[in-house]
Amino acid sequence: MIYNDPQGFGVGGEYPASSTSASEAANEQLQKSRGPIFIMVTKSVPCSTLHLSSSLPLSFGGPVSMCIFLIVYSAAGSSHLTTVWRVCFGLGAVLPLSVFYFRLRLVTSKLYREGAIKKRVPYWLVLKYYWRSLIGTCLAWFIYDFVTFPNGIFSGAIISSLVKNSSIKKTAEYQLLLNTLQLPGIFIGALLCNPLGRKNTMMLGFSGYLIFGLVIGLSYDRITKMLPLFVIFYGLMQSSGNLGPGDFLGLLSSESYATPIRGTCYGLSAAVGKAGAAIGTQVFQPIQIHWGKRWTFIVAAVCGIVGILVTWIFVPDLTGEDLALEDRRFEEFLRKEGWTGDIGDDQPE
């Protein structure tokens, strides 16, 4: 609690603001490449496996943390596990602390200076205008985190139960393979962002949960006898999550809403996602105990179907247009509804 609460206020509070700021900055400099650039520079969260927080892309967080763990574990030995976790924990503070310098020098984007609403934010009108998009980004994020967080947290336990003559080091080596297999998804998603489209690529990623979840779940007894093959398919399932919702939930949450409420709607969507992560983590073990491990993958496949439907019905089909155009449409809607507040960073105090 002492560790997670400050992390939630710090990283959890800053991440939506920084992500939307990155989207606005990319819009000013490289609008046509905004989507791929946003994906590559903002896909970062704390790596929960070893509590090794870093600003590296999420897809690299797992392999990097596993490499560091294996190095520290090999140096300290199995009889000094207290030293291992303390060193890993301490190293995890280095990169986040280095971000302070860059964050303090961050310049407010032109879009925000021209489109901010600092007083009398018309939240009811925001819901009236964006209710469909909010349902889409919130539910899709809930589904994604419901699957990916428990699979990330409990992957070690699953692999450990399948490894013959299991040891911490051997399990970590398989986890390193699993985490490395997740890497291609992020790059493929970024490449498909513009040609295939944001919405279509996200549905493609959710379909990976359906395909690989069913393959693993329905053939669990056979595939687990060939552990490397199991890890490969497990990694492909996680990689498809990176390719689709992992890449595009942040992007779509930053592009679907106008500048005055972009950070708020992004933060709300991410918060609902974290609720999905908490619920998914709590139900993961009961599913394993009462239904068997295969059902954790079948449930992931079902979530893939739901994710496809939610994305198709509720998520807007964005094309990467100038974010200022959405700001104008939103302002026109507010004025039409009779809202008379001020817009812009130079609002009177």
Automatic annotation (TrEMBL):
Q: Which organism is it from?
A: Neolecta irregularis (strain DAH-3)
Read off the PROSITE patterns from this record.
MFS
Lineage at the top is: Eukaryota, Fungi, Dikarya, Ascomycota, Taphrinomycotina
For membrane topology, the record states: Multi-pass membrane protein
User: Where is the chain membrane-spanning?
Assistant: 58-77, 83-102, 176-197, 203-220, 295-315
InterPro entries found in the cross-reference section: MFS_dom, MFS_sugar_transport-like, MFS_trans_sf
Q: What is this protein called?
A: Putative metabolite transport protein
GO CC annotation: plasma membrane
In its UniProt record, a GO molecular function of this protein is: carboxylic acid transmembrane transporter activity
Q: Identify the residues that the record assigns to the Major facilitator superfamily (MFS) profile domain, covering every copy.
A: 1-319
Which keywords has UniProt assigned to this entry?
Membrane, Transmembrane, Transmembrane helix
Which Gene3D superfamilies does the record cross-reference, listed alphabetically? MFS general substrate transporter like domains (1.20.1250.20)
Q: Where in the cell is it found?
A: Membrane
